[in-house]
Every structure is written in C-alpha cells, then in structure tokens.
Amino acid sequence: MSDFAAVASPTSTTESFLLGGSKGGGSTGSDVGKRCCGHKHELVGYEALPDFLKHNEFVLDYYRSEWPIKQALLSVFALHNETINIWTHLLGFFVFLALTVCAATMVPMETGVASSGSHLANCTSDPTVLMAYYGTNGTAMAVQAVLRRNVSASVVDTELAAAAALSSSAATHAVTRWPFYAYLCGAMFCLLMSSGCHLLSCHSEHACYVLLRLDYAGITGLIVTSFYPLVYYTFLCDPFHRTLYLAAITVFGAAAVAVSMLPVFEAPQLRWARAALFACMAASGLVPIVHKLLVFGARPEAVLTTGYELAMGAFYLAGVVVYGARVPERWMPGKFDLFGHSHQLFHALVIAGAYTHYQAGLVYLSWRDMDMCL
C-alpha cells in the first residue's frame, strides 16, 4: 500500500478505490502527513514531480503533486496546468449529453412514438445537413430536402410538407437507433473519462495508473463506436459486410484496451506508439468508407457523410500529430504551461471531430429512415 493510504481515513471509499497499491517509491510518511493535513496545497515545478507525473518535460510549472482526493476535486475550480484539459472535455461531455437529449426528443425511437412534427435539423446548426421530416405518428415521411443558406424557412417547410404528403404511404418503420446512440454514449464516456483523469491523476501513483487506463478505454470506445453508424447504416442491406466490419473494429478495440493495460504502455517514450495505435484504429475506417463510395457513390447521402467523415479524420489526425510532437510548448518550454499547450489543443480537436461525426450520424438516420431494407 502507498504511504498515503496509511494516513487516509478508513471511511473514505472513494480514496480506497483510487489508492490501491503504489508501484514505486514515494514521499516519506511525515511528508505525506504534512500534505494531507496542511491547509495549503501548492503547485510545484516539473523537477519536483514524482516520476509517475512526469509526462511532458516542456510544461515546466503549475503542477499538482500527490494531492488528497478532496483537494484534487476542488482544484477543478482552480488555475493550474490541467484546468483547460479538465474543462474542455467536461464541457464537451455536457454538450454531447445535450445533443443526445435533443436527438432522443426530435428523432422517433420506433414506429408509433409520437413526434411534434420536428425534424433532425433542430439538433444541428449546420444549414447544409440533409433533413428528415417526421409526421405526428413518429414515422419517417420524407427525406430528400437540403437546406441552403439562400432558401427561406417558409419555402423549405412548404417543400417538406409536400414531400411528406406525397410519401405518406412509403416507409412505415424507423430504422433501428442503437448504432447512433452507441456512438453518442461512446463520445460521452471518452470525454468524461478524460476529464476525470486530468482532474484526479495527481492524487497518487495508483490513481494515475487506474485513471490513465480508463482514459485509454474511453479513447478506444470513441473510435470503435464511431464505426457503428457508418457501418450499420451504410451496409444495412448487406448483412455479411455489416457483421464483418462491426466485428473487426470491436475486436480491434478490445485488443487495444488489453494492450493499454500493460504498465509499459504509459511510458513517456512510447507517446508516439500510443498515438500510432489509436491512429491506426481510426484509419481502418477508410476501408468501409471506400466500400461505401464504391456501392453508393451516386447517392448524395453517401457523399455528404463521407465529407463529414473526412473532416472528422482530419481533426483527429491533427490532434494525434500535435499530441505526439508536443507543440507549441516544445518550441518555447514554459510559455504554454497554463494555456495553449499540445494536450489542450488535442482536446479541442477531439471535440471538433466528434461533433462532425455526430452530424454524419444525423444524415445516416435520414437516409435509412427513407430507404431502409424491409
């Protein structure tokens, strides 16, 4: 057990989970007691950190080192070099929670669920996204309507109403929603685990070990569930390829989680190996995307979703490069300790990529609600 565990309160279940057993040398019992019982918890420089907190030698100051759980939690409202990392993904979690609620409200879950006549565009700010219009019986009535910036809302509503009337006898079933909501859950899990890791990993070596594994699992979950809408809705009418692609990325993700459990995986010198693993997982999505274009290249939905997916890939790739290269702090060590270092930029790019894929998910639902396999 770690030294800190020796002085921790036996009634603290939160601390007992995170503490576990320390895997390396640490401070003496008297030093730990002083940190635990003192009223002031100061930020320290990189050189004063224990080895398990030394992740980026170009960020020189404003570190929290082996803080008690309570102080670590309260530091969410303080300024240190993890503040932006915590809040970017914490706010991102709440954004995706709101998008999930919006989608659940506006998109009928199954045939017969009442709707208010709203359409998917209510859940997106993108004026070019393909919309689906849902009637009061909750079924998809028509799609094939594209908002343009130079078209008035009244004209669009008129066209949608006409399309709905003409196709009232068309699709009578809404396509299954689980791949879309699995992706939203994967995104929220990733963002929440990342935020928690940055908030609490300063507590102890074991806490850092556990939380980093949850963080890696969250990244893997985001990548894996990103495939689900792409594969499921594209190959809705092709069970063989749908099952093949879904099984392949799920097994790949499980293997990545297993590898991330190895202690050596978090070594600073393996930063590029970690980035390469997740980048290869994401890049494997090119296979079903190319397949989609070969089969459905003439459909506007296939082209539009591919555009979103390429934009998502560009955001993620930029994030991987920034994360691995540790820029801009590499160029000016100490100048970006609080604001603007690579991990903060990485977080912003992850959120941008995840939101772009959410837009693609709305298009997939619109497409398959109109043209599903019966």
UniProtKB/TrEMBL annotation:
It holds the Pfam family HlyIII. Keywords: Membrane, Metal-binding, Transmembrane, Transmembrane helix, Zinc. It is a multi-pass membrane protein. The keyword NADP does not apply. It comes from the Eukaryota. Zn(2+) binds at H198, H343, H347. One of its GO terms (biological process) is response to sucrose. This is Uncharacterized protein. One of its GO terms (molecular function) is signaling receptor activity. The chain crosses the membrane at residues 86-107, 180-201, 216-236, 243-265, 271-290, 302-325, 345-367. The keyword Zinc applies. InterPro entries: AdipoR/HlyIII-related. One of its GO terms (cellular component) is membrane. It is found in: Membrane.
